[in-house]
Amino acid sequence: MQGDTRARTKLQDPSAFATSLTILAMDRLGAEMINWHPMTVRHEILDEFHVLPPKHNLDKIYTGMGLLASNDFYRRLPVFIQYCNILGGGQFNPARLDLADADECAWGISEAVLLAPPDDTDEPFSEEICYYVGGVLDEEGIRNPPDVLRIGKWDIKPSYGELSMQDPMMFQMEHEAQTEEGEQIKTMLRQRLDQLLREVSSLPLENGNTSDLLEKMQSK
């Protein structure tokens, strides 16, 4: 009974990670749920846990299912953007285009790789996705991204502005600002991975354990 209470609380927690919610649902409903229609999953979660998660948590579960069911996150740009938004805590709205920023891309890739590693480990992402990430880094002025964003590509490698190069003090300030942006993303990733590790380790599972996933997370 206590486990059910904890499970219901987690399913309704707006800060819960997609990985945790997906593992919790699959523990009770079985791995076959990744092939079910979203409305079936919604109905089965309500029937099993006697609670209906808020829409953004259901979106996280559907995203976890999508990651486990196919390789589309790594190959199709629209899916990549949508999943990064949801994994980053955003709301899914099919009527509005919401481009994923650097933070969302960094966390989306990190969580996706933990939950559903790509089939092709040499070149996991399509060129279209790599150029999208490159464009995001360029637009946000990030020249020293965390490793997870080094998939980014540019047709022409971005450089510092001509004016900045002519003004040493301006160049230094611009360089420091761009370096700080990259460091902030790295700090965010470390904090979220630590939070995810603690969250997954405390899940009230009945039919399985998370030892393999925890081992991967602790090695990051």
Let me know the number of strands: 0
Rounded Rg: 19 Å
Describe the largest sheet: none
- Strand pairing plus helix content: what structural class? mainly alpha
Quick one: overall form? Answer: globular
Give the SSE string. HHHHHHHHHHH
Mean pLDDT: 85
Total number of helices:
11
What is the count of structural domains? 1
Proportion of strand residues: under 5%
Helical coverage, percent range: 55-70%
Distance between the termini: 34 Å
Low-confidence stretches: none
Account of the protein in words:
The chain has one domain (2-207). It is globular. α2 crosses α4 (55-69), α6 packs across α7 (102-115) and α10 (168-201) runs antiparallel to α11 (211-218). The protein has helices at residues 2-12, 18-29, 38-49, 55-69, 72-75, 77-87, 102-115, 127-139, 162-166, 168-201, 211-218. By secondary structure, the protein is mainly α. The chain has eleven helices and no strands.
